[in-house]
Design a protein that fits this description.
3 domains, two-stranded antiparallel sheet, globular, disordered N terminus, disordered C terminus
Length: about 650
């Protein structure tokens, strides 16, 4: 990609120095606050809102320094108007940094005219920053909520409100915790930035390559090996990455051509990468940063979130893995040649660099019940220490500086998006729209939980289309999740439900952003990739309904009940995959596919009555299943001349 086509400016001279300093300063500023360095060294105790004001000041300045006004603008120099906008953005955040202590002491702060002007300018700058970073979709979305707050008396039906003055709107969004400097920006500045730095450090120390080598050594030799490598590598990387599309662009550049070279059709190769990268968002422990927000909104420990998310995520990837394997068997594909597979022993020797910090993270989160910030810092410290054990991974001042700069760059999108989310939350809080929409959804469903789940699933998928994961989750939590809670569904199940369907918008046509990126790499039709990705990710469209109705799938209940539900669900996933794929040792007919699909759904649905229904294909297709068992018992091991599976 040429310099003119790249997304960010490539400045030189003094502007380059300032930009580099601000990029590195953003994570350093957060770490100083998290470690309480100002308090320990200078007895300066910053309020959270005060800290967030400084964070936004750096963030807004960076956007106008590094992101051009439009895609055709020059990347080689900084226009005078962007210098002014950067200074204005810095001033908007800095005002809160310096004056927040005085503002916070007043219960109902009455802003002056100049403060209202500064608040309006800051909101407009956030919207312009958002436009430059993401395009017009989020601007239209944000604009709706702003207009709804200011002119609600012109809206019909449940959208009607009495309308609020510009002064009242700015006071809430700019000066109070319910607005810009609320929970979304706080999570970005306190938690997400740690894990972005963690992922950046992993890449610089070679951890990203270790993920791929481990995946290759684990599954590369089996039939359809490249596709299975894509699943494992994308799941590893996707749980740290906050974006399915970024994950596809990163790992897909290697895995999609590899799958095509082994015989997979282009649309299938693209779909495997898209669905695997999207699945990384629901796979613990990091879950693309949304788990941190979920823990904050639900006021529960982060460990509780990742424990609840584990079984549904495993079922998701099990379905993808089985379908990929069956497709490889159907096409007669084999594994990668031995010379293309890295040594498993060497991969394991290097794995401590990746799994050591991740183990520390999980232990502190789940065993010691520490918060996500502190656990992330412990994992970072572990990675930092382990990096010095090998020359290839050893950090030096240059690598560290690059890590800080890359983290600052990685935070630009998510930070501005979280600031925008604060504006939306402030508007919804002011107008009561979330409560009204929840009431309308419950009435529309006739207070029937099954109808409400279907409506909510559809609404979550549609609302999530084209939105970043974090924005999608925040929007759904504010507007849709309360309807489920009002009908008696536990909050964690309700949040997980809307989160799943919001994430699925990345592989669900007609938008399907992850499928779109994968189709570009695979050089095939976008819609064919999207529909195939939906098929591969079918479990994610089904399991949320089941874990809402029986929370054993969220690891709520006795160990025995959870184990039984997990085992039967795994069998159900296998049956469902066979029914959808139409292959099980041999091609199976339409009737058999229907039986396996019904049986799979029965086994996945918690309860012994549904498990009996799940035995239908076992009873009616016993001859086929006997052949399968015989094949598994008598087949030769890999490397002795048999088909690898």
């Amino acid at each position: 990609m040429s310099e003119e086509q790249s997304r960010y400016r490539k400045l030189t001279g003094f502007p380059s120095i300032v930009t580099g300093a601000l990029l590195a300063a953003l994570p350093v500023y957060s770490f100083l606050f998290l470690l309480r360095i100002p308090d320990l060294l200078f007895h300066i105790n910053l309020f959270t809102g005060q800290f967030l004001g400084g964070f936004l000041a750096i963030l807004l300045a960076l956007v106008f320094l590094v992101v051009p006004q439009h895609k055709n603008a020059s990347r080689k120099y900084l226009p005078w108007y962007d210098t002014i906008l950067a200074l204005a953005g810095f001033a908007g955040g800095s005002y809160i940094f310096f004056f927040y202590p005085a503002i916070s002491q007043q219960r109902m702060y009455q802003a002056t005219f100049l403060e209202i002007v500064l608040g309006v300018v800051t909101v407009l700058l956030i919207l312009e920053a958002l436009r430059r970073l993401t395009g017009w979709l989020l601007i239209i979305l944000s604009g709706f909520f702003i207009v709804h707050a200011l002119f609600g008396d012109y809206f019909p039906g449940f959208l009607f409100n009495r309308g609020f003055s510009l002064k009242r709107f700015i006071e809430l969004t700019y000066f109070y915790y319910d607005g810009i400097f609320g929970v979304a920006l706080a999570v970005a500045a306190n938690i997400i930035i740690i894990y972005i730095f963690f992922g950046t450090l992993l890449q610089i120390t070679g951890g990203g390559r270790i993920f791929t080598d481990i995946a290759l050594s684990m599954v590369g030799k089996f039939r359809g090996g490249p596709a299975k490598v894509a699943i494992v590598a994308s799941a590893f990387f996707g749980t740290i990455s906050g974006s399915p599309t970024a994950n596809v662009a990163t790992t897909g550049m290697m895995t999609i051509p590899m799958m095509k070279s082994m015989g997979y059709k282009p649309h299938f190769a693209g779909a495997v990468e898209a669905v695997s990268s999207t699945g990384g968002q629901i796979m613990p422990p990091v879950m693309g940063s949304v788990a941190f927000l979920m823990a904050e909104y639900l006021n529960v420990s982060y460990g509780e979130i990742i424990v609840a998310a584990l079984i549904p995520a495993l079922l998701y990837f099990l379905a993808v893995f089985i379908q990929v394997d069956l497709e490889a068997a159907k096409m007669g594909l084999k594994g990668l040649p031995a010379e293309e597979i890295p040594s498993g022993r060497n991969a394991l020797k290097q794995s401590w660099l990746v799994f050591g910090p991740l183990a520390v993270l999980v232990i502190f989160l789940i065993v010691f019940h520490q918060n996500a910030s502190l656990s992330g810092l412990y994992a970072l410290a572990t990675l930092f220490i382990l990096s010095f054990l090998k020359k290839e991974s050893r950090l030096n001042p240059r690598k560290l500086l690059d890590s800080f700069k890359n983290t600052g760059m990685g935070m630009i999108d998510i930070g501005i998006i979280c600031a925008m989310a604060g504006i939306i939350i402030g508007s919804v809080t002011l107008t009561g729209l979330g409560f009204k929409l929840s009431y309308e959804l419950v009435n529309l469903a006739g207070k029937n939980i099954y109808i409400l789940l279907l409506i909510t699933a559809l609404a979550s998928t549609v609302l999530g289309m084209g939105l970043p994961v974090v924005t999608c989750y925040i929007l759904l939590v504010v507007l849709v999740a309360p309807a489920l809670v009002n009908l008696g569904i536990t909050p964690i199940a309700a949040h997980m439900f809307v989160f799943y369907f919001g994430v699925l918008s990345f592989i669900t046509p007609p938008i399907a952003a992850a499928a779109y990126v994968a189709a570009g790499i695979a050089r095939t039709g976008f819609m064919s990739v999207g529909w195939k990705a939906m098929q591969l990710g079918i479990v994610a469209y089904i399991v949320p309904f089941f874990f809402v109705l029986n929370q054993n799938l969220l690891m709520k209940g006795s160990a025995g009940d959870i184990l039984i539900v997990f085992i039967t669900a795994c069998i159900g996933v296998a049956f469902l995959s066979v029914g959808i794929g139409g292959y099980f040792i041999r091609h199976i007919g339409r009737f058999s596919r229907i039986l396996f699909t019904i049986g799979g759904l029965g086994m996945m649905f918690p309860g012994w009555q549904s498990d009996l229904l799940g035995l239908l294909p076992v009873i009616l297709e016993w001859k086929l299943l006997l052949k399968v068992i015989s094949f598994l018992i008598h087949r030769k091991r890999p490397g002795t001349g048999s088909t690898k599976g």
